[in-house]
Amino acid sequence: MSTEYHTVLVVGVEIDKSKVFKKTLVRGCRHSIDSLTPGHFCARCGNKIWINGIEIIPEYEDEHEITLAGIPVFSDDDNLMVVGHRSITIGFYTDQGTSGMMPQGADNDQYKEKLRQKLEPLGLWDKDKFGTWIIMWCS
User: How many domains does the chain have?
Assistant: First the structure.
C-alpha cells in the first residue's frame, strides 16, 4: 500500500462548514408528546425526545460532484471548505472530469462577481475570503 499526495489550486471563497451544515434539534422518536410529558425521554419508547441533528442547506449537492449553488466544493479541513474552480491540479484523478476547471485566462474580477451573485443570497459571500487557495491531502 502506498501513499498518494494530491494538490489542487482553487480560485474561490473560503466558507465555514457550520454555515452549510447547521446543527439543529430533531425528534428522537415518533410518538406524540404534550406539554405534560415530563423529562427528556419518551414515556412510550424510552428514547430521547430531542436529539442533535444536522440540517444541510438545500443548495448543497453531493450526488455526483460536491457543489454549492452549482459551484464545485473542495475541502481539506473539518471546519472549512473552499467553493470555486480549480485552475491547477497535481496528482488529482482525471475521472473526476473537468467540469470544475476554471477556463485558462479567465478574468478573476468577472469570476469573483459570478461567485458573489450565487453566494450572497445564501449569506455565504465574504469578499475578504475570496482568493487563490492551495488544498493538499494524501490518501
Answer: 2
